[in-house]
Amino acid sequence: MSTFPNQAAPNNTSMAPTFLLVGMPGLSAAPSWWTIPLITMYLLSALGNGTILWIIALDSTLHRPMYFFLFLLSVSDVGLATALMPTLLGLAFAGVHAVPASACLLQMFFVHIFSVMESSVLLAMALDRALAICRPLHYPTLLTNDVISKICLAIGFRCLGLHLPLPFLLAHMPYCLPQVLTHSYCLHPDIAHLACPGAWGAIYSLFVVLSVMGLDPLLIFFSYGLIGRVLQGLGSSEDRWKAGQTCAAHLSAVLLFYMPMILLALIDHLRVPIPQPAHTLLSYVHFLFPPLINPILYSVKMKEIRERIVKRLQPRKVGCAQ
């Protein structure tokens, strides 16, 4: 069982002046082992997503709905990875387990803002692909710049509207349990779980989780059901292959983002006895791997992105040909 410095005995009721984070299981005695891969993953994800942002911003031919949503996805990936780093690096470098409630709630806010943003953008990208394949003739008139702007406003309102009340609710909730979280970062279901029974803020926290992480995957997979039905009706296998390739990167990103979370939910619901390190590892995969893998997926699967990256990185010829 993990021990924490200066951990106080559980109070009957408190306002949680600090929360205690759990480090990487099995590596608390040798934090340097997971410091290097942690920093490497963050730098690689920042480089990959920064490249995607750079390419799309500079190339006017990519200013189309699909690539605009990809731009937003890279923004959410960079934001999510950056929001996770303060407590992860604190644990890795200095073994800092105690985090003030204000700092923990601030991290929680940004982690979930960018997580909801990523989920919302993945849903918008699924809608974009469904319209492009199911209604190709009407696609340019359905996804106009005005519609894209409204989708962006809806995503922003959804992120802020759902999560802005949470830090204030959780800050004033009574806590009856020791304030020991189960991860290396602050998550609102984790914090709400420590609240006293009857604290209605925990109910709102559950509503937020279900309204995003429960609804979005259903709508995304419904969109892909429509796409699959249209692909079955295409004449040649070559046409089906070309249409399917346009969805391959996005479907891979969807599975990478949601599958660890779905597995965690099934494990908790079915009470499957798995070691805590495996449980924690799935959480790391859910939050840290999409920012790292998404740029690679889209660079490999999307020909236009790949070609423009290669073109930008090629040295320009200087001088006159003789």
Helix content: over 70%
Distance between the termini: 74 Å
Q: How do the helices and strands follow one another from N- to C-terminus?
A: EHHEHHHHHHHHH
| Total of helices | 11
What class do helices, strands and sheet pairing give? mainly alpha
Largest sheet: 2 strands, antiparallel
Uncertain residue segments:
1-11
Radius of gyration: 22 Å
Shape: globular
The amount of beta strand, in percent, is under 5%
Strands, total number: 2
The chain-level mean pLDDT equals: 81
Lateral strand order in the biggest sheet: 1-2
Explained architecture:
The chain has about 325 residues and is mostly helical. It is about 70% helix and about 0% strand. It is built from 11 helices and 2 strands; from the N terminus they run βααβααααααααα. The chain has helices spanning about 30-60, 65-95, 100-135, 140, 145-165, 165-170, 190-195, 200-230, 235-270, 275-300, 305-315, and strands at about 20, 100. The chain has a two-stranded antiparallel ribbon. α1 runs antiparallel to α2 (about 65-95), α1 (about 30-60) crosses α11 (about 305-315) and α10 crosses α11. About 35% of the residues are buried.
